[in-house]
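In the previous chapter we treated chains in isolation. Here, by contrast, the input contains two separate entities that must be folded as one system, with a combined length of 408 residues.
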Amino acid sequence: MTTSDSPLDALGDLMQAAQQGDGAAYAQLLRTITPRIRQLVRRQRGFAGAAEVEDLVQDVLLSVHAVRQTYDPSRPFEPWLTAILRNRLVDGARRYGRIARREVKVEDLDVTFSDLETNEESADLSDAAALRDAVQALPEQQRQAIELLKLKELSLKEAAQVSGTSIGALKVATHRPMATLRMTLGKRRE
Amino acid sequence: MNTDDLVQKLARELEPAMPLRRPAARAGAWFAGATVYIAALAIGMGFVNGYPNGVGVTFWAVQVAAIVTSLLASAAAFASVIPGLSGRSRSLAVAAAALWIVILAATSTADADWSAVSSATHEWWCVGFIVAGGAPLLVVLARMLRRGAPLNPATTAAFAALSIAALANVGACISLPHANSAITLAWHGGVIAVATMSVAACGRLLFFWRLAPKSTKG
């Protein structure tokens, strides 16, 4: 790999090495351009949230990866990267526009309905004392699964780490007591 | 997957990707192959009206303009899939196409008989030659262009179609020689315009980003 005085030419050198299969050079290149891409995305999309910015950054990185063979080492790297970045931002804006046309954002949907019969389950679950009693009556493993996943709202991965069980076992341990709770609370209501 | 993980994944799974040759070189290679194919097709059709001896200089001037347009349009198509290149090749292709149209119009409308355009059913042969003869070329050219970046799918597709239609048009004109006329202008010009616009409209179906998945499930 040759060395260059200009940092942008250095990026071109890194890409040239990456084109030959040098993973370390490629990682260095991507780590160097990622903050620049992020900065440009933020500047272009001032209204975007952190997750959307990161999504666009990753989209640009994947695009760079997909067309890395189009970089000509005898040309400067910056215009090549900028052209891809602009294109992906325009595509992203188009995608965002399509989604915005199709979807309506609502702050809070009512979780209950005026018709009592449609609220059987939610009404039962809103009885905190009854729910707590029903959970306490569950076997140890099932109770722990419900507490971690449904009450503390941990992810499956996090809950598996805390409980020391597999994700599959947790899924089973959650499915069964949910059915039990529905039945128990249903009987209590009757 | 967070961005750091994605960078590591891309670097870990990196495979060599040799740089594409310059657009002009790729266009030259494609054009050479396409010319051989169209020439073989024209010869294979057996010069329907006989070898084009009786046609004049203007006929060949129009064919040369079409060939130049085809070459420059293919160069523009190949350049359009390389990020960061200037639009000079596009300007050249558009200029060549404009010059071709001007020459064709100037040599065709001197004694224009527009009333005969709709009844010139023999022109369907030329339409068939351009469309059916050009279709395999579009497949090959699209495959070559897909190795680039789909920055402007419609533009890339339009130049690709223009290049193919212009070259196939030359094949049709040589295979079935006829003097330049309003009929030629209307039929040949029409089919080239329709083909170019139709393929351009399908640009996003032909050229789109094929991105690696951010993460693999399992």
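The mean pLDDT of chain A is 81. The interface with chain B takes residues 18-24, 26-27, 30-31, 34, 54, 57-59, 61-63, 65-73, 75-76, 79-84, 87, 91 of chain A (CB under 8 Å). Compare these points with the single-chain example from earlier in the chapter.
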